[in-house]
Amino acid sequence: MLKLSDINLGETVTVISFTEEEISENLLKMGFIPGEKISLERVAPFGDPLIIGVSGYLLSLRKSEAEKVMVEY
What we know:
The protein is an alpha+beta fold. It has one domain (2-72): SH3 type barrels (Roll), CATH 2.30.30.90. The chain is 18% helix and 41% strand. It contains two helices and six strands. The protein has helices at 21-29, 63-66, and strands spanning 2-3, 12-18, 37-43, 50-54, 57-61, 69-72. The chain has a six-stranded antiparallel beta sheet with strand order 1-6-2-3-4-5. A hairpin with a 2-residue loop joins strand 4 (50-54) and strand 5 (57-61). The longest helix has 9 residues, at 21-29. The termini are close together. The relative contact order is 0.34.
């Protein structure tokens, strides 16, 4: 397992879990369901935020939020 913030541009991974319950509620509402495939689509010029492809749409996440999402290839 690794953090969503550690994947490279263009990679697709599967959501496994969250490290904080508080953020998990919000991310679950946005489609970050364990087992869901997500991909890193874009990165802002200074590396924050990250643009994540999930459930057919793009979502902007702060890098600090992405560090709390555990994923695997």
